[in-house]
Inverse folding.
């Protein structure tokens, strides 16, 4: 089954404790992206990657890191989480050819709470 | 000023009626327009894309685009309770490979 998977689905952590949210896709997509979704603010892009070893900042990259060492994986790293990073996080992927780049497939989401 | 604006709702529509969802955008150079549906507690899924002025129909869904007025709409005919969800409008950014998202309209279909 074609899908984007994220782990963990739920995470409660404390301020300053490094964490990684994994994202993997099995559709051979070049483009991958991380979003956060907060009530009233909609989806905001954190980072995106056009292909292996190519990453770019989105609208809200502060406090986050990413890496793209393999085509299928795009982990999101919070090196020192803070309470304002409490949010619902989505990973998405798409082909990078033409308009298809915007026809994104989303993972199930990771709900993160930082206390 | 938000770049993609939607009425947050909730928009309440009787079952069997037409639901009309609207979206305006600020960048005149945008060329690609999308409607994603998000059920409560779930992830967004693409339901319609439109690239040219006019209407595009897919089953009970019709997307309408008016670039001169910078306006995109989604019509849902014969609305069903299963259509109850939040509908997200997204527009491509000219400057990079990003989508600009509206905050979404919550649609409730009343049986």
């Amino acid at each position: 089954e074609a899908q984007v998977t994220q782990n963990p689905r739920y995470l409660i952590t404390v301020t300053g404790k490094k964490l990684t949210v994994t994202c993997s896709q099995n559709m051979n997509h070049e483009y991958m992206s991380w979003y956060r979704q907060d009530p009233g603010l909609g989806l905001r892009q954190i980072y995106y990657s056009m292909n292996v070893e190519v990453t770019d900042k989105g609208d809200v990259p502060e406090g986050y890191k990413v890496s793209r060492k393999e085509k299928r994986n795009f982990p999101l790293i919070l090196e020192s989480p803070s309470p304002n990073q409490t949010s619902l996080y989505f990973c998405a992927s798409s082909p990078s050819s033409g308009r298809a780049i915007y026809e994104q497939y989303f993972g199930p989401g990771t709900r993160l709470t930082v206390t | 000023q938000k770049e993609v604006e939607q009425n947050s709702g909730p928009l309440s529509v009787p079952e069997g009626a037409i639901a009309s969802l609207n979206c305006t955008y600020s960048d005149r150079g945008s060329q690609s327009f999308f409607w994603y549906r998000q059920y409560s507690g779930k992830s967004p899924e693409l339901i319609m894309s439109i690239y040219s002025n006019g209407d595009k129909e897919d089953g009970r869904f019709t997307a309408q685009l008016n670039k001169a007025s910078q306006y995109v709409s989604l019509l849902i005919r014969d609305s069903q309770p299963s259509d109850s969800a939040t509908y997200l409008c997204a527009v491509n950014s000219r400057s990079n490979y990003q989508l600009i998202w509206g905050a979404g309209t919550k649609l409730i279909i009343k049986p």
